[in-house]
Design brief:
Elements lengths: L2 H4 L46 H17 L4 H17 L29 E3 L6 H14 L5 E3 L7 H7 L28 E7 L5 E6 L3 H13 L6 H10 L6 E8 L3 H15 L10 H7 L3 H4 L5
Amino acid sequence: MPRFQEDRTWNLQTTVFKPERSSRPIQYNIVTKWYRKPSNQNIIVHYHSAHPFYVKRALVRNMFRTARKVCTEEEERKESLEMARDIAWSNGYYTFPTSREASSGGVILRHGSTTIEGKTPFVPPFISDEVSASIKKCLKRSGLENLVAIVNVPPFNLKKRLIRNRIYDRLCTTSNCVVCPAGREGDCNMTGVVYRITCRVCGDEYIGETARPLHVRVKEHMYGMRRLKKYTALGSHRIQKHNGDDFEVTVEVVAQEPQVCARKTLEAFWIQVTDPKMNRREECLAITRELRPYIRLAFPHRL
């Protein structure tokens, strides 16, 4: 016995249980599961936040790993994982992959996935909760909720807005610019935008979209107007509404979207809602081309 224990007086009582009939005197059966305090709001880094993607991926993976490891029984493990999925869902982690589910509890945590539980993804831009709810109702009425998964393109986060609004990026270098006076300086250099041209004489409007710098597309419109090109929107408007007289226009950006499909969809929505007089409605065909692969799913009995 060590020296320091010999010099101490221990006041300990020991109880020894003797087994009876070759059985254990006490049988411990400890059951554990993942516990969250009632006061916990279950708020984690949101999926649409400006944090790096690897940070959000590691955070959610660790949450599912903890929920799995602290449980001793299979029933408690399922309950804990279900709680973790609810927390992930409430913070924007909606979709589910077809593989690598074990490490993340089924929540998708990587870019570039093409299928979601065997469903075909439909990727519209996020406009409002009402529009998203209407799309879901249409899929449900068509019986496609088990075949098509809606993946909304998120709007710009704070990081993208701050970078886009830097002072040294917003300089107007276009001579006789008709875009910046109606908006902010530097709007003429924006790319991937949906824009609106308004006639300052009669108030008629034109909605368009372009992936190029906006001032390049506007110059094409102005050229068609000056040359009285009938196949252009402004040229036709000048001939039909103003008898060939010149008129001034204002140009403003109504939306910005880098993805072609989402941008053309936004353009068609703006045309449908605002009903511009200069448009020929040919732009709405973009939605038809994008939704053409889903026609067989929507009307299988007609094809």
